[in-house]
Specification:
Length: 357
Amino acid sequence: MTWQSSDWLSSNRFDNFRYVEVDKSTMKDLSETDTINETGGTIKYDALSALKVSADLPFVGNFNIGNNYLRVYSVSRLGSKETTILHATLIPSRPATDYSSASATGTLDCYSLLKLLEDAATEEPITYNAGVNATGEATLLIAKVGLPFIADLSSMTLTSPRSYDAGTSYLEICNDLLAVAGFNSLEIDSLGTVRLTKYADPATRSPVWVLRDDDEQVVFSPDVSYEFDTFHVPNKVIAVKSATNSTPLTATALNDDPASIYSTVSRGRVIAHTETVSDVEGQQALNAVAKRVLAEKSSAVESINIAHPFLPYNTGDALSLSYTKHAFSFTGVAVSKELSLSRGMLCKTRIRRFVRR
């Protein structure tokens, strides 16, 4: 029978979990391991972190899959309906084990496969010359550590050389090249495939779920934490480009609009942000950078933290909350999610949006 979206809201849903060894070379499932506790673990997703996902999984007995990976599945049942979801492909580490006369126990520290890129580093200084494709160079590093990837097409080439010191991690280089190309930082999907995706304004995304408190199926805890801090929003940007054997170039952009609550006029003081750039040519391009950065920085982060049973969405998806009891509504992007591997799969989710005024 087909699994419906409304089934996720049912209190009669039953969830259990499978932990499967994954062949490192083929990325295919091998055998299921029974040494990890079926419940009690936690998976943490954080779109703002470099590695994106991690997990803590308690085990009993002799857990040992060598250098292979581990996949976490949930199997949810509602009457005769059943659906399986793959939540993550991880690198497990067993840092410590507690032994007793009855058993051996411990907790696996599990890492995103992006850890391979974080741990790999250049052996000598490296320079990418003007004219090379930024995302293309990033994919070469990803392939070098043996990770599968999917990349959005991009013809963006560097306009000036870009250099990195010996010992710089592949992950840092990839994310820097992607930023120049207008891409998001590296992402990783549940299969362990690295994703290179073009940046899109979060405000343009439609919510994949609308959580309400004015119907029969309330799926979020009434305890909602709201945060909105405008104190550090800058109203002046100074862009600086160092120039060899000459005076550095500088450009300034100022928000002095009386209609803006962040402006020098409204606040009666200057809050400056300095941006150091390298991949620009000339004063006009630097002026444009200063204006762009001021526009990007002229916002404050508004966020909420909610708790709810599991719903199938990913960090990066838009969610909407309607809390009629407090005449409060909020639509933003889920930037983090902590998933409890137990019945109901309780989630703690942080949703944020940028407020420009």
